[in-house]
Design goal:
The complex is a heterodimer of chains A (1089) and B (395). Chain A is an alpha/beta fold and 1089 residues long. Among the domains of chain A are: 125 residues, no CATH class; 132 residues, no CATH class; 207 residues, Tandem AAA-ATPase domain (Rossmann fold, 3-Layer(aba) Sandwich); 247 residues, Rossmann fold, CATH 3.40.50.300. Helix content of chain A is 42%, strand content 18%. Chain A is built from 44 helices and 37 strands. In chain A, the strands form nine sheets. Chain A has a seven-stranded parallel β-sheet with strand order 27-28-26-29-30-25-31, sandwiched between helices. In chain A, a hairpin with a 5-residue loop joins strand 8 and strand 9. Chain A is globular. Chain B is an alpha+beta fold and 395 residues long. Chain B has two domains: 250 residues, no CATH class; 77 residues, no CATH class. In chain B, strands 1-2-3-4-5 form a five-stranded mixed β-sheet. In chain B, helix 2 packs antiparallel against helix 7, helix 4 crosses helix 9 and helix 11 packs antiparallel against helix 13. The longest helix of chain B has 18 residues. The chains are: A alpha/beta (1089), B alpha+beta (395). Chains A and B meet through strand 4, helix 5, strand 8, helix 6 and helix 7 of A and helix 5, helix 9, helix 10, helix 11 and helix 12 of B.
């Protein structure tokens, strides 16, 4: 778990490594300036198999306290420590350290950085404590500096691909001259990228002891330059470009400046041999030449603007006297536009009325406007010679262009002009593909009501459902949303102009598109294909594959509703909930149920990915109640199915609906049972887990006799052979992100289970966690997103690592119909939500916890029989505390933690659940408060959470100084805070603080006093809070926690005294009452073993 | 490509003397070797920044030079005496630029200079026998060092236009903003002569006898190697500094622009404006000292996640080359830009291939039957072709 960092030192990128073991062992440096816990990166990174060269000491500046460097947060969190325990007191200061570093060759760097990121991402998915997947030991932790340089190197490759680099000649120190390839970063888009990089690159990336290497912009430029020059050279060498020079030498002479220059650009050797005179002449000329790129009007506060106006179709249509497109004139209007605020502009026509010396327009000074406009037009005319025409007038303000010229302007000159700083406004249709020639896939799925309506889901008809459904398709030539007949298309093509008036609108018809479209239609006459294939063709096809743009998908027939509802599920009719469902759904929840029912009906797997707290469980329970009610109703009135019953279930003739298999993490089994009891008591729910669980035929019989079988991911794998024998109506995965590692046995087992209907529930933002998304979609609709490797290459890497927007759009279109995700902040959802939502989170004891618990109870019950009075009270009280500690984590009760080793969350059911929930909180960008009444538990949690989540965790307790408190609160409340979690001991943090940055409050253990708990909750739920606050109260099933919680909830007489008196009342209970409250129910134990 | 007029701080503005009254001037030793005196040059250009000032010694020598040197007392050498920091042709190989103004001037000189004289003159111009080049209204002159100890006083004169003529031309010019526009961006429009023709004027001399060459070397013909050498230097400089022709005709380039401006103001009835406000784009990120926020020392900023960098071919191929235009070394015959275009293509292609996703697109594009006409990327085959083509002439 060493942490690797990258720093630009002495003109090279250096990798260096903090050693985990040396850090936790608190080793001392052997020499004063030596970093005490760095290690040789050559050995730490040797496993990568990339040539790293030998290690070399470099000098870096690092934040320090007491002459010791602070660890990186990655390393500190891995060890469960705070990155800077003294944050909030005196600030740390920079000190110089010597660390061993390696410096790979420039051409290897991109690959190396990518590899490190791959490692980090891979570890992230394999290292999941709860997934139980193949947990490979993490090799290295990757610091932000590595991520930063990886993005810079990506930008370098972007620049290379986009041809954004220039040949240069430079003076070397010492008077020699060299040639090289340099990134060209002055154009707006590139400048913006580079500025973002420079602003976001962490200080650790530029922590060189040399001051000149601490400037972020200089580091970014130098690193880009080194990659671009070395990559360009190695490519040109591989292509033997030098040979091209040989032929030239005979003609041009050996001291031709071009040949000299190219000699330094194409080969390995960058230095040029030329006389001093020629050198300075060459450098001057080259600078002047390259400098022309920079003449972009950036020297002026105003720039040229060009607005392209299309000719209006004045023809009445088909009249022979109408001008043809080629005869029409396009109008280019000139403006000057403020460079600082592009909204401020002045039309050239008005500009000539201004005084020549200038004026002020909307607060912006404009000097010599006439001259400026002319100079700008003159500049632009170098790129677009047509502008010279306008300049033949004394006061140019506009320019007419025939259609062909206008097309050339739009296609060729516009991008270059824009790069040169001219702002060009084009008609809307030009930028959008809406009015472009392309092809559209038309699918006819036929009317609903045949197979789709009447099928029973078994055998033959199921093959026709879902993504495998065969649909008739054919391709159409279309312009925007209008379909063209072949005749119309030929007419368009025959007009022989790249810009065509079609239905009163201008359309770009590229000559290459015309041929491609014709050829494509000829080669793809249509036929039948699977619906999933059609979706992929329509949404994830590259133009390059078809030769023409694919403008989308048109669905006729019953499938059309699928696309229409894509996204929010709003267009579907709401289902009617039966009386067997006890509860009221919020409007969005009802939409969710309707959506699930709709997708299932057509055999599609559905992913309900609502934010945590929006009630996924209850939506699924409502679906189960609904389908049973409909089945019953249909069975009763088999002959009179109403025509308007849109959401007819497919099991019409079955009186009995087959059982649903619900696979959940151990930690939420309790929740499901509670919620099912509460909302749907008529459902026969069976839990398949624990040592006493059934097996073989008995299990099959039990399953078949029930409505819902709840089991865990581990058991779904272990008892797979038996579970497979049951005929399931559906399989539901809760916390479906558990199968994100496709290689894990559990994921494979779950995916191989057979059921017609598949539903996945998850609260994580699946669209941002693409490895999860793939696994979940592959479970729901196998094969739809292709193989995992393909998906990784096509979508995950471009989108997650490099923010590829078009790819992201493609993916969203693809998954849109099958994923329903509502977020708390959605305005339509917020309206439905109360300001505060309280839920109880039920968890189980682990076997270790259960044994400890039972032993303690046995001992207490035995002892209370023999003691009296104060002694008995004291003994009961201490036993209660111990039981609560056991419920929290065995380490709290046993005090068996090992220094330097973060506590293992899997020893506590509560901790596992907490981590799962925090994962969702963090993924959603939310912040949480966690209250515990034990300072010691807070300590354990702070170490555990830092280690498991890799995030900073604040811990406010009785020992926190006033100064630290203020600092912590400021840190947590800051808008830009990177600290998602604050732990508080109930006594120290229960009152007075304002922590409205949090919208989740966890009560990890309970005080049994609603007033005290509410006070704590009010740290977040108070004035200044703008979001719904989610309050999660943890309860361990089958233990005293659940008993007492029930008593309070039922407002029993006993509870009255409870609320008033803290926990003292318990000490007065009779031995029988005590026994009833304390004794562990067997179903409380989670046992996957 | 010349840089546009950027008034810089070193341009000392003073009331413009009537250009037509200016005569040959002798710049002080600290001035650059070439000047269109008395005003500093229109542009901070290559012409203006010759490597080093002439030595005091050379000025003295020139001052002592007799109009008709006594050959007996003067030592003759086989080769011309070496001149340090002389004015040379921009291109070291002695090639003159292809610029139309240069070529026009050159054709004129060729009328007067016989083959051998031209060859010698070119050699003189190439190795820099001219100590200094002074350009003023109606004349350019300079000491040209021959074989004798004293250099010759060499000059070429031509008629400057009168103030009235210029007024007419300026009015005509102002009516067509292309002239102002092109000149403001540092360019001399090729059809500039059209503007002078209506007034019976030629901006460029059309016949040799419109030039009055004179040299103190004593040769019979005014077109000795020294005057031709001087003419070649002017021709050479016209490529980079085409406005010199206006200076020679009595109206330095920035005076002309000033006149154009005044004319425009006269028509709109307002006063002389100030130089355009200089907008400095915020290209340099503000400096963030390492210790500015040590709590965030190890953390990347949020903007890192916003940096998108698609690996995709450019929208228009060779965007920078297209904006750059022809190479700076106009004299070279080597097809530089063509070869660079090929370099850009192979580098871009390699970058696309290095990205598995982009590579897939690329392979598909190359396998596709339809040629993607808008942005051709050389495939392997066309790459070879590109190399062969690389030897074609620059455009």
């Amino acid at each position: 778990m060493d942490a690797v960092h990258a720093t630009w030192v002495e003109g090279r990128l250096r990798l260096w490594v903090e050693s985990f073991t040396r850090f936790v062992d608190d080793e001392a440096a052997s020499q004063d300036d030596e970093h005490p816990f760095a290690r040789d990166p050559a050995s730490a990174l040797g496993y990568l198999g990339i040539e790293l060269g030998s290690a070399k000491p470099i000098e870096v500046l690092l934040p320090s306290r007491d002459s010791r460097p602070l660890p990186s947060p990655e390393l500190a969190h891995a060890a469960g420590r705070a990155a800077d325990p003294d944050a909030g007191n005196e600030p740390p200061f920079l000190e110089r350290y010597s660390v061993l570093s390696v410096s790979p060759r420039a051409e290897d760097i991109s690959a190396l950085l990518e590899r490190l990121l791959d490692e980090a991402e891979h570890d992230d998915s394999a290292d999941d404590h709860a997934a139980g997947g193949v947990a490979t030991a993490a090799h290295v932790l990757v610091g932000s500096s590595v991520r930063g340089f990886a993005v810079v190197s990506r930008v370098a490759r972007h620049l290379l691909a986009q041809q954004r680099f220039v040949p240069m000649i430079m003076h070397e120190p010492g008077g020699a001259m060299s040639a090289g390839w340099r990134p060209w970063l002055s154009d707006e888009q590139q400048a913006e990228r580079v500025l973002k990089l420079a602003r976001s690159l962490p200080a650790s990336a530029r922590a060189s002891a040399r001051e000149s290497e601490q400037d972020a912009m200089a580091v970014v430029e130098a690193f880009l330059g080194s990659i671009i020059d070395s990559t360009a050279r190695s490519v040109l060498r591989a292509e033997s470009m030098m040979e091209a020079l040989e032929a030239g030498k005979d003609r041009a002479g050996a001291d031709d400046p071009h040949l000299l220059w190219l000699g330094g650009l194409l080969g390995e050797e960058s230095s040029l041999s030329a006389t001093t005179m020629l050198q300075s002449e060459m450098i001057k000329s080259v600078r002047g030449w390259i400098g022309a790129l920079d003449l972009r009007g950036q020297t002026s506060a105003w720039r040229l603007g060009v607005r392209v106006e299309e000719p209006i179709d004045i023809g009445l249509g088909g009249d022979a006297d109408d001008p043809t497109e080629n005869e029409m004139n396009w109008l280019l209007r000139f403006q000057l536009r403020s460079a600082e605020d592009p909204k401020i502009s002045i039309e050239a026509g008005d500009l000539w009325l201004l005084p020549a010396e200038g004026t002020t327009i909307e607060g912006k000074r404009l000097d010599n406007p006439h001259e400026l406009l002319l100079a700008e037009l003159g500049r632009a005319s170098r790129i677009c010679p047509a502008f010279e025409e306008a300049l033949a007038e004394a006061e140019p303000s506009m320019l007419f262009m025939p259609t062909l010229k206008a097309y050339e302007f739009l296609r060729e000159h516009r991008p270059l002009l824009e790069e040169q700083g001219v702002s060009v406004q084009v008609p809307e249709w030009w930028e959008s593909s809406a009015m472009r020639l392309g092809t559209r896939l038309r699918i006819d799925s036929g009317p609903p009501g045949e197979d789709e309506m009447g099928g029973t889901g078994d055998g033959a008809s199921s093959a026709k459902l879902g993504l495998g459904t065969l649909v008739n398709y054919h391709w159409e030539i279309a312009v925007g949303d209008k379909t063209l007949s072949l005749h119309e298309f030929e007419q368009l093509a025959n007009r022989n102009t790249p810009l065509v008036l079609f239905g009163g609108k201008w359309v770009e018809i590229r000559p290459e598109d015309v041929n491609a479209a014709l050829e494509f239609i000829r080669e793809n006459p249509g036929g039948q294909m699977a619906f999933g294939e059609a979706m992929r063709l329509a949404y994830a096809t590259d133009t390059r594959k078809t030769g023409v743009p694919v403008l989308g998908l048109e669905i006729g027939g019953w499938l059309s509703a699928l696309l229409e509802q894509s996204g929010m599920g709003q267009k579907l009719p709401d289902v009617e909930l039966p009386a067997t469902f006890h509860g009221t759904l919020r409007p969005y929840q009802l939409r969710g149920v309707s959506w699930l029912a709709f997708l299932e009906r057509f055999g599609f797997g559905a992913c309900l990915a609502d934010d945590m707290g929006l009630g996924k469980t209850v939506q699924l329970l409502a679906l189960l109640a609904y389908e049973r009610a409909i089945a019953k109703q249909t069975a009763e009135h088999a002959d009179e199915v109403p025509d308007n019953q849109v959401l007819e279930p497919v099991d019409a003739e079955h009186e009995l609906v087959l059982p649903t298999l619900l696979v959940v993490p151990m930690s939420v089994v309790g929740n499901w049972l509670r919620e099912a009891e509460r909302f749907c008591p008529s459902l026969k729910v069976v839990v398949h887990h624990g040592p006493e669980r059934l097996g073989g035929d008995a299990l099959v019989a039990q399953c078949e006799a029930s409505d819902v079988v709840v089991t865990t991911y581990a058991l779904a794998n272990r008892d797979k052979d038996t579970i497979e024998r049951v005929k399931w109506r559906r399989i539901v995965l809760d916390e479906a992100q558990f199968i994100k590692n496709p290689q894990a046995k559990q994921s494979q087992a779950v995916r191989s289970l057979v059921a017609e209907r598949r539903i996945a529930l998850t609260g994580t933002p699946v669209e941002n966690r693409l490895s999860e998304l793939w696994s979940i979609m592959d479970f729901l609709n196998p094969g739809y997103l292709g193989t995992a490797g393909n998906f990784q290459r096509r979508f995950s890497v471009p989108i997650e690592r490099y923010r590829d927007k078009p790819r992201g759009e493609q993916l969203r279109s693809l998954i849109g119909p099958f994923v329903l995700r509502r977020v708390k902040t959605d305005p339509t959802i917020i309206a439905d939500l109360p300001e505060k939502i309280e839920t109880r989170e039920y968890s189980h004891l682990t076997r270790e916890q259960a044994e400890l618990y039972e032993n303690t109870v046995k001992r207490v019950l035995a002892e209370v029989e023999q003691t009296q009075g104060m002694h008995r009270r004291g003994m009961v009280l201490s036993a209660l505390i111990r039981l609560k500690q056991i419920c929290n984590h065995p380490a709290q009760a046993l005090r068996d933690g090992v220094t330097g080793t973060p506590p293992d969350p899997s020893r506590s059911g509560k901790c596992v659940r907490l981590l799962e929930m925090l994962d969702e909180v963090i993924a959603a960008g939310d912040r949480a408060l966690i209250f515990t009444q034990f300072r010691q538990m807070g300590q354990i949690l702070s170490v555990m959470l830092r280690h498991e989540l890799g995030k900073e965790v604040l811990f406010l307790h009785g020992g926190t100084t006033q100064k630290q408190r203020v600092a912590m609160i400021d840190q947590f409340q800051a808008e830009t805070s990177r600290i998602p979690i604050m732990l508080l001991s109930l006594k120290a943090g229960g009152v007075g603080l304002n922590l409205t940055a949090a919208n989740h409050v966890f009560h990890f253990d309970r005080w049994w006093n609603p007033a005290v708990e509410n006070q704590a909750t009010d740290r977040a739920f108070r004035i200044g809070q703008t979001r719904t606050v989610h309050v999660h109260k943890f309860v361990v099933r089958g233990t005293l926690e659940e008993r007492i919680d029930e008593m309070i909830e039922q407002k029993t007489e006993l509870a009255e005294s409870i609320v008033g008196s803290g926990e003292r009342w318990l000490t007065d209970l009779s031995s029988d009452d005590l026994k009833r409250i304390l004794t562990l129910r067997q179903d409380a134990v989670a046992d996957d073993a | 490509m010349p840089k546009p007029d950027k008034p810089t701080s070193k341009t000392t503005k003073k009331p413009a003397a009537k250009a037509s009254e200016q005569l040959v001037s002798k710049p002080p030793a600290s001035k650059p070797a070439v000047s269109s005196s008395p005003k500093p040059p229109v542009m901070p250009s290559r012409v203006a920044s010759a490597p080093a000032p002439p030595s005091v010694e050379s000025r003295e020598r020139r001052d002592r030079a007799q109009p008709y040197p006594d050959r007996k007392r003067d030592e003759m050498t086989m080769h011309p005496r070496k001149v340090r920091y002389g004015v040379k042709l921009a291109d070291r190989s002695g090639e003159l630029p292809q610029h139309w103004a240069t070529q026009r001037w050159l054709r004129l000189l060729e009328q007067g200079a016989s083959g051998p004289v031209m060859t010698e003159a070119k050699e003189y111009a190439k190795i820099g026998q001219t100590r200094r080049l002074d350009i003023a209204s109606g004349v350019f002159e300079g000491p040209v060092q021959g074989r004798r100890r004293a250099s010759y006083t060499t000059s070429i004169g031509l008629d400057a236009f009168t103030a009235d003529q210029w007024t007419a031309v300026v009015e005509a010019m102002a009516d067509q903003s292309i002239y102002t526009a092109k000149m403001l961006s540092g360019e001399l429009p090729q059809n500039v002569e059209d503007l002078f023709a209506p007034f019976g004027l030629h901006l460029f001399p059309t016949e040799l006898d419109q030039l009055r060459a004179s040299c103190t070397c004593g040769h019979d013909t005014p077109w000795c190697k020294h005057t031709v050498c001087l003419g070649l230097l002017i021709a050479d400089q016209l490529a980079t500094e085409p406005f010199l022709i206006f200076t020679l005709r009595g109206m330095p380039g920035d005076d002309l622009i000033e006149r154009l401006r005044q004319h425009r103001q006269a028509t709109s009835g307002s006063m002389v404006g100030q130089a355009a406000a200089v907008y400095t784009p915020h290209l340099g990120a503000e400096a963030r000292p390492l210790d500015s926020d040590l709590a965030q020392f190890w953390n990347a900023g949020d903007e890192l996640d916003e940096v998108d960098a698609p690996i995709a071919p450019p929208e228009v191929s060779h965007p920078l080359l297209r904006r750059l235009g022809p190479s700076p070394f106009e004299a070279s015959k080597f097809p530089f830009v063509g070869l660079l275009a090929t370099c850009y293509d192979v580098i871009s292609r390699a970058a696309l291939l290095s990205d598995p996703d982009a590579a897939e697109d690329l392979e598909r594009a190359e396998a596709a039957p339809v040629e993607s006409a808008s942005r051709p990327l050389p495939g392997r085959k066309s790459l070879k072709l590109g190399k062969a083509k690389a030897v074609k002439k620059d455009d």
